[in-house]
From TrEMBL:
It comes from the Bacteria. CDD domains: HemD. SUPFAM superfamilies: HemD-like. This is Uroporphyrinogen-III synthase. It holds the Pfam family HEM4. Residues 26-187 form the Tetrapyrrole biosynthesis uroporphyrinogen III synthase domain.
Length: 199
C-alpha cells in the first residue's frame, strides 16, 4: 500500500449459489440485504419491482444491472424501520443467505407485514490460522469475524469493521474496534490506514 503498510488478504467466506423455488404468491417488493444474493437472482427475478437494499455496494451492483432501487439503508435494522414506517402496505419477498441475521425478519414479523423469505446462497466459512500477529484486521461481515476469531483467538488487537453490525460481532473479541463512516470496502480501508497511522 502507498501508506507504507502491508496487507494480507484472504476471502474468509466462500459463496455458493443454492437452488431455490421462485415464490408462487404475488409480491410487489423485493428485499436484498447482501450483494451475494444478486448473482443467483439475475435473469430469474423481475427487476421492475420495488427493491429495498442494505449497503452501498448492493445498491451499486443493482443499479449497474439496470434495476431501480426504491430504498437503500445502512443496515437491516434501519431498513426494517423504514419499511414498517412507510411501506407496510407492500408484499415482500426477501432473498437472502442461509445464515442471514434475524433483525429484519423479526421486525417485519412483529408488525404482520407480508414477507416471504427465499434463501438463494450459502456462505461457507474458511477458517485459516496465521503465525504472525496483525496490527489490525479488517472485517466485512459478522460471520467473517467469528470465523477469523475461531482460528486466531489471540490475533484481534484492532478490528476495523465495515459497519455497526460487524462491529458488534468484533466487540465480542476486542473492545478496540473502529467502524468505517460509510459501508464500503474503500472506506473501511481508509479507516484502517488512518487508525494505524495515528497509532
Amino acid at each position: 500500500m502507498s501508506a507504507g503498510l502491508s496487507v494480507v488478504n484472504y476471502d474468509i467466506l466462500k459463496i455458493q449459489k443454492l437452488k431455490f423455488e421462485y415464490p408462487s404468491s404475488f409480491y410487489n417488493a423485493i428485499i436484498i440485504t447482501s450483494i451475494n444474493a444478486i448473482d443467483p437472482l439475475w435473469n430469474r427475478v423481475d427487476g421492475s419491482k420495488k427493491i429495498f437494499v442494505v449497503g452501498d455496494k448492493t445498491e451499486a451492483a443493482l443499479l449497474e444491472k439496470g434495476w431501480h432501487v426504491e430504498v437503500k439503508a445502512n443496515n437491516a435494522s434501519e431498513l426494517a424501520k423504514i419499511i414498517i414506517a412507510n411501506y407496510d402496505h407492500l408484499k415482500f419477498v426477501y432473498f437472502c443467505g442461509l445464515h442471514r441475521r434475524d433483525e429484519l425478519p423479526k421486525a417485519l414479523l412483529s408488525t404482520q407485514i407480508n414477507c416471504v423469505e427465499v434463501k438463494v446462497y450459502d456462505s461457507v466459512a474458511i477458517e485459516k490460522s496465521f503465525d504472525c500477529i496483525f496490527d489490525a484486521v479488517m472485517f466485512f461481515s459478522p460471520r467473517g469475524v467469528h470465523a477469523f476469531a475461531k482460528a486466531n483467538p489471540e490475533n484481534i488487537h484492532l478490528a476495523i469493521c465495515i459497519g455497526e453490525t460487524t462491529a458488534a460481532a468484533a466487540r465480542i473479541y476486542t473492545q478496540n474496534v473502529r467502524v468505517a463512516h460509510k459501508t464500503t470496502v474503500e472506506n473501511t480501508i481508509v479507516t484502517a490506514v488512518k487508525a494505524l497511522q495515528n497509532d
